[in-house]
Design a protein that fits this description.
Chain B: InterPro entries: AAA+_ATPase, ABC_carbohydrate_import_ATPase, ABC_transporter-like_ATP-bd, ABC_transporter-like_CS, P-loop_NTPase. The complex is a heterodimer of chains A (373) and B (265). Chain A has 373 residues and is mainly alpha-helical. Chain A is 70% helix and 3% strand. In chain A, the strands form 2 sheets. A two-stranded antiparallel sheet of chain A has the order 1-4. A two-stranded antiparallel ribbon of chain A has the order 2-3. Chain B is 36% helix and 28% strand. In chain B, a hairpin with a 2-residue loop joins β11 and β12. In chain B, α6 packs parallel to α7. Classes of the chains: A mainly alpha (373), B alpha/beta (265).
Chain lengths: 373, 265
């Protein structure tokens, strides 16, 4: 604005009304802080108790990184959507249904696998669009709308599987896939040379047959990092990201300043469906089959990872980085319990407690960060 | 002051504005104008038609009849965006802010500054934070860190951020919907000072309130609404705070009450 001669006379001296933030408080206002602290604790714990079990050898790391990667893929979508103020409970069913959208055309219609994969992605994006459209148009809670999708998609997954394969699994995808590029794209191992070199150098172990104990970075891990990185950049560094915060923080205020709230929310539902389909495609390529029970309860795991990562259930606050650390805690604890030989039944107890702690912690942080009472 | 102000053209002028909602007559002949460098206070009790009038001025409602001039030319707004494009910005009571987001992000919400990197466009957060900090400093709110959440600001500070945002994005006329109604004394004086500062920059301000004291502190002229009509417009020199209060009350009940209680309401 132009120079203003009246400023000097109107400007007030600094007074006690000015709210100053200490560096610590600023740090506390980062949504992912709790998840990072939790990750450190979990690593310290298993570093002490699972030491010598092979959990932190190359194949052990691969083990929990794979679980982390699977969850990161869907947690990124869930976190973005949650910051945008909505939920998607149909993620798990979407994983099952997307798998069928790949396997059934490939095995029973004789479609090339590439076409089936593209078909599955298009179908998933359409379903995500419809989820979003219904939520935005009806103004019903997304919890209810996507709960309906959860049942519709799971039901269709089972029904179509029975219809075509006469059982709840459609197998044999690998026989039709041949040497198509989509197989290594979703289930290959990256950097095999690096791992052979690491094994020869004695940094990682070798199998009895002379192969390195880990043959490469699974494609799923790379997908997970790529999706989380892009999600993080979009949320924190783009205009669309600002719109996500605005739409979730106060949809009405956002609309008043010209943010296309409906469009933002619909796109976010399409993103969660896209993430679920990446997950499903990796699984189908890995196992060579699609099963009707794939992805059951994954929607909750995605939401748990996002919440542990600092996303508020009420929207407008959270981060993709946090969701990644939430997924990491999840993967390390789930596999760590196996490595330490503790009964695996305790994992769910731990998970529930972790979720509760995270929500309480997040609420506290939010109040500190925003001065809300 | 009023002479120099009167010489300037009106930024907004409405004459005999009428607005019906079905059988309900919300505005029944309202006339007012606001000039550059002037604070026009729109006074009226609940149901007087203040909200309907500002929603008409800001393009939310279309008037049923009457004339609406901007810079002396007749105009018809179809959407709030049209009003914004004509330089008429309205700061509603909810302020259109997201408490959990930072001041900088709120300041540029819906009008984000972008920085091109190769084929991608990124949010220019450094620019947003710099501008937000500078604009707040002009008001006298010294933010060391404009990445702090709006929720950490007091009500008065939030009100000032909302006004500063409208001014920064080129408003010529600012419509403030009861900006002081939920504020304490110190917060109110902070907002009133800022309103005066905005006026001194040459903007026209329409200040809606039902608090005569706040109006009298900052206003140059006063338009009193009652039951959808203008009771009249008064320059500050021509009316006292008590007269304004009585006029606004519409009847003498409040006056009697004041006498009973031994003070001004």
């Amino acid at each position: 604005m132009a120079e203003d001669p009246t400023v000097a006379t109107v400007a007030q001296p600094l007074d006690e009304r000015l709210q100053r933030q200490s560096g610590l408080r600023r740090l506390l206002s980062r949504p992912e802080l709790g998840a990072i602290a939790g990750t450190v604790l979990v690593f310290l714990f298993f570093g002490a108790t699972a030491h010598g079990t092979g959990m932190f050898a190359a194949d052990g790391i691969l083990n929990w990184m794979t679980v982390t990667a699977q969850l990161t893929i869907i947690a990124t979508g869930a976190a973005l959507l949650m910051v945008g103020g909505e939920f998607d409970l149909s993620v798990g069913s979407m994983i099952g249904f997307a798998g069928m959208m790949i396997a059934i055309p490939t095995v029973y219609f004789g479609w090339p696998i590439e076409i089936s994969v593209i078909f599955a992605f298009c179908g998933a994006l359409l379903i995500g669009f419809l989820n979003g459209l219904v939520v935005v148009r009806t103004r019903l809670p997304s919890f209810i709308v996507t709960l309906a999708s959860l049942y519709i998609l799971r039901g269709m997954t089972i029904a179509l599987s029975i219809l075509f394969a006469n059982r709840t699994i459609v197998s044999g995808v690998k026989n039709f896939a041949g040497d198509s590029f989509v197989v290594p794209l979703f289930s290959g191992k990256a950097f095999p040379g690096l791992f052979i070199w690491l094994a020869d150098a004695g940094i990682i172990g070798k199998l009895p047959n002379g192969q390195p104990s880990v043959q490469g970075v699974p494609a799923m891990v790379i997908w997970a990092f790529a999706i989380a990185l892009i999600g993080h950049i979009v949320l924190s560094r783009t205009r669309f990201g600002n719109w996500i915060f605005a739409a979730g923080g106060d949809a009405n205020a956002a609309r008043n300043v010209g943010v296309p709230v409906a469009r933002v929310k619909i796109v976010l539902f399409m993103v969660t469906a896209f993430c679920a389909t990446v997950y499903a495609t990796c699984q189908v390529m890995e196992f060579g089959s699609a099963a009707a029970d794939r992805g059951v309860l994954k929607e909750f795991e995605a939401i748990i990872a996002a919440v542990i990562g600092g996303c508020l259930l009420t929207g407008g606050y959270g981060s993709v980085v946090g969701a990644f650390f939430g997924a990491l805690i999840f993967g390390v604890v789930q596999m760590g319990i196996l490595f330490t030989g503790a009964p695996n039944d305790w994992f769910q107890v731990f998970l529930g407690l972790m979720l509760l702690t995270a929500v309480l912690f997040n609420n506290y942080i939010r109040r500190r960060a925003t001065g809300e009472r | 002051m009023s002479e120099s102000v009167s010489a300037k053209p009106a930024l907004i002028e409405v004459r005999d504005l009428v607005k019906h909602f079905g059988p309900v007559v919300a505005l029944n002949g309202v006339s007012m104008k606001v000039r550059s460098g002037e604070v026009l206070c729109l006074l009226g009790d609940n149901g007087a038609g203040k909200s309907t009038l500002i929603k008409t001025l800001s393009g939310v409602h279309k008037p049923t009849s009457g004339s609406f001039l901007v810079d002396g030319k007749p105009i018809a707004f179809h959407t709030p965006r049209d009003a914004l494009d004509a330089g008429i910005a309205t700061v509603y009571q909810d302020l259109a802010m997201v408490p959990l987001s930072s001041i900088a992000r709120n300041f540029f919400m819906g009008r984000e500054p972008l920085r091109r990197v190769g084929p991608f466009k990124f949010l220019d957060l450094a620019f947003a934070e710099k501008v937000a900090r500078e604009e707040m400093k002009k008001i006298g709110i010294d933010l060391r860190d404009s990445s702090q959440a709006v929720g950490t600001l007091s009500g008065g500070e939030r009100q000032c951020v909302a006004i500063a945002r409208a001014v920064y994005f080129g408003a010529k006329v600012l419509i403030l919907d009861e900006p002081t109604s939920a504020l304490g004394v110190a917060q109110t004086s902070m907002v009133l000072k800022y309103v005066n500062q905005v006026r001194a920059r040459g903007l026209g301000v329409i200040f809606i309130t039902h608090n005569v004291r706040h109006a009298y502190a900052v206003g140059n002229s006063f338009t009193v609404l009652n039951r959808g009509r203008t009771l009249g417009t008064f320059e500050k020199a021509g009316i006292s705070i008590e007269e304004l209060q009585n006029l606004m009350a519409g009847d003498k009940e409040l006056q009697f009450l004041s006498n009973d209680l031994g003070g001004t309401v």
